[in-house]
Amino acid sequence: MNSLRxxxxxxxxxxxxxxxxxxxxxxxxxxxxxxxxxxxxxxxFPEYSxxxxxxxxxxxxxxxxxxxVGPNGKDNNPGTKNKPFRSLEAARNAxxxxxxxxxxxxxxxxxxxxxxxxxxxxxxxxxxxxxGSPDKPVVYSGEAPDEVIFSSGAELNVKKLHKVxxxxxxxxxxxxxxxxxxxxxxxxxxxxxxFKGDGEYGQLAMNGSMLQLAQWPNRGYNxxxxxxxxxxxxxxxxxxxxxxxxxxENPTGGKFRFKENLSPxxxxxxxxxxxxxxxxxxxxxxYFQNEAVGNIExxxxxxxxxxxxxxxxxxxxxPRRVRLFNVLAELDEPGEWYFDKKEQRxxxxxxxxxxxxxxxxxxxxxxxxxxxxxxxxxxMISLKNTSNVILKNFVFENxxxxxxxxxxxxxxxxxxxxxxxxxxxxxxxxxxxYNGITACNFYDLYAAFSISGGDFRSLEHCFNFATNNxxxxxxxxxxxxxxxxxxxxxxxxxLLYNMNxxxxxxxxxxxxxxxxxxxxxxxxxxxxxxxxxxxxxxMNNVLRYNFVHHLIExxxxxxxxxxxxxxxxxxxxxxxxxxxxxxxxxxxQGPLNDYQNNITMDCSVMWWTNKxxxxxxxxxxxxxxxxxxxxDLPKGDKGDYLNIVESVIGEEGWLKSPWKxxxxxxxxxxxxxxxxxxxxxxxxxxxxxxxxxxxxxGGSGTIEGLESSEVGRFTDLPVEGHFELPTDIxxxxxxxxxxxxxxxxKDFTPKPNFKPIPFEEIGLVKDRFRPSxxxxxxxxxxxxxxxxxxxxxxxxxxxxxxxxPLPSYLKP
Length: 812
Description:
alpha/beta; 24-stranded mixed beta sheet; about 800 residues; Pectin_lyase_fold/virulence; Right handed beta helix region; globular; about 15% helix; PbH1; disordered N terminus
């Protein structure tokens, strides 16, 4: 195939029509030869997932014995249903005693936690001695889903909340809030420690709903109207170079004016408290910032100190989007709150249903005592080196650092649970094998979860996993709302929506399949729902059979479904359905990436790439460019490719076992050209209403576009690859577009080499852990109607701000 592709450059002088015919002839001949010699890739077969799933769950067995825990129990009870224990610790100790005396019974043992709310003051920890066995698991189970709540934080006495009547305090409130806001003095209350200020403001929950700290505006962003000073930056500091100094008395950050009118009461408040933040996008649409305010004076806002990139409006058609955070003067709707650190007074506008005698108001912050794990975080429940332990049917709420931590061991599982209202992350899984999360719901958290495991140097797989979960409405912006790191991780059948955060992964042999993503990244640019980048060792990460739809970008930098950024290698995008997925289906410009057997519809671009180094001189220049690390930029900074890969897999690790046997293509890639789309495959794809099949962005920063309406500039792509135009398809071949059912009609025959996508299997599935699922036809039909007339690509402040979902307590 390569000899045929190599001659492509000889035809660069031809007219576009002739060039297209020659290109198609070359690619058709090469494609036929490739299929004959190489066959279909292993990940194109359904059974590819078997190694991830065959040993995933323990067998479902009836427990041989049960202990009970109840809210009205006593720890000196025998642990029966009529006389339950009061604490999880008592049940754990009873199991330890049983194991040392009689041993676990056949079927293992189950701790049934009776319905109620349990306040977790200190971390509940299970250790290796608390393990079960594959046929005798130890199960901690809520009596029924959603009826057993583990809550952390500090409960406030709502009876001590009083309506604000003092004239001096009323004057600080927004006119809408006067007469409706309640307050409580926390001068002598332990909970006040959670409101540290200076960016650590804590969280507040009422009756199971996370409340919103007062801000301007309530949803979305205002805009920078005039940049007065860009301010000092840190991104390009040389090694050992220090950023510009600052102090609260002498702020040195950038300065700007809002396009919208800044209330004088906000400036007065800052003079009194000196504690506000500006959040948003000061420079790039892909970089969310949370910066301290240094001064507010005469309608201008100055930042306290340096920022990474400065305040710069790079895209003239889109103003920089920012908001003020922690602003008492903007407490103007139910569910908003503010803690006045100077006077130790908490203000809150109660939500609907608030009752002074029965409502709960929880300060989320201090999470009690315990031994922090490898993550440096404290969890409500921690499993360390346990095996064959299952947690299921619980609600974890009002957490500070973490709800659940799982470190090491095998076959530990969190199932059929809800994790909500957290100041930090929901779950951490670190190491071990076959440890996972399934059939859980994550929402109103900062971040959802992270999973790591396996070993990069030995290529030992962990098979840790997240399956059949719902992840929505989390606050993290950018990559890392879900973090995956390691070898052999499985992420499947999850539903993610209504967020501006996404998945980041630094993995080998990741399998991400049958997931559904929508309405993600609606405030960001240059954003993707699954992202990796700038790594050469990320081999064989397979993203297949996913459905990505309705990524309505705000304008500016493109939003797309999947991406291997900054020359990253090893991504295999296969058999996915992309419908209105922002600007397009996927982006990559590094080696050993594939885009095959996908359907891309109603987007500007199918595949976005960059003009990269392909001539001998260009390739040599890229190798020479590495000398800047350690001189102009810190060693190991992004772009220090060789140093990074060797720090992970060892010096020339690609030439040594087990890497040289597992990924022989990596040696060939590094020795030929690791700086371009070397050995990439873009082929066997369908498109509908896609104006640019390939979009090649110029290295100079200009948009090179297409040479004609039908063919991209193939001469900018390396000859060591396979780049084939997609085939156009019509929506009539699908079962029901109005309900987003993109299964092929029975009378449609796909083109040769295109394998039908198992669309009906995408998304949540019913199983023993999730016995019921949302009606896909119903909710997808509603999404189709909601976004039918809404388009992205051009910024409209009113439309973008309207995309932000209302908090549940404000919905009619």
